[in-house]
Write a structure and sequence with these properties.
about 300 residues, alpha/beta, Rossmann fold, 2 domains, eight-stranded mixed β-sheet, 8 strands, about 35% helix, globular
Amino acid sequence: MTTATLTYTPKSYKSDLKPIWCPGCGDFGVLSALYKAMAQCQLDPNNTVVVSGIGCSSRLPGFVSTYGFHSVHGRALPVATGIKASRPELNVIVVGGDGDGYSIGGGHLPHAARRNLNMTYLIMNNNTYGLTKGQVSPTSMIPRASSNPKIDPKRWRTTPYGMVEDHLDPLALAVAADCSFVARGFSYKPNVLADILVQAISHKGFSLIDAFSPCPTMNQDQTDDYYKNMTFDIPADHDPSNKTAAFALATHPTGYPIGVIYKHVNKPSMQDEEASIRGRFTNDLTATIDSLFRRYL
């Protein structure tokens, strides 16, 4: 008896729950790209888990017809790590926002890179805390207070006189932490983002994608038009295995690169290391038992 091969389409991953994001939110484009990427990778919904933290973007697991885990603020990576470590055969995709991933959850990022588990972290970066009404996040591009900036207090209620902290560069942080796959996408280029996601999901190791996802309600400075003018495609001759070149691209002074910035293909995953330990332990145990049999029998 022949069993027909299941073919998944983007619609296969849509749940009955409709997104409730604000009109014009970039997260719609990110979700569309995720549907397309999952279909291209033919991920079995019954063997796929989408994990999130807290925030507008972290509602995403409810909109995907797979297993989902809506965790607590900043703790999506530890939850996903536990799932992947205990069930390595599952496809694990982590989603969230810049406030969730780079602030309270920022301490987990370098350790996820160190462990290099086979999972993908998709961060929807809108440069603000959208769900809690527009406070500055670690990636907010508000001028420093010492520069005496003119800031619209209606837009940035918590920082009407400017920032007292520098903003975080997530891609530079990820490259410095030797995250084995680092890329940037843009919600208004969902097909390009889908292609990046396919590469990330197929990559053996921990993948980080920082996707610009403008918030039209709480961040009217970094809009879709802003990113359309400030982003550029990574040059075709860029070597993503060159860490120095990747770091220079991540810290580009005049724009934001879109595409794969860094890729470490020879970095062992945590599963590789554990398999090596199990193999050596089994060999040592077999040798010990064999030695005992030879000695006493």
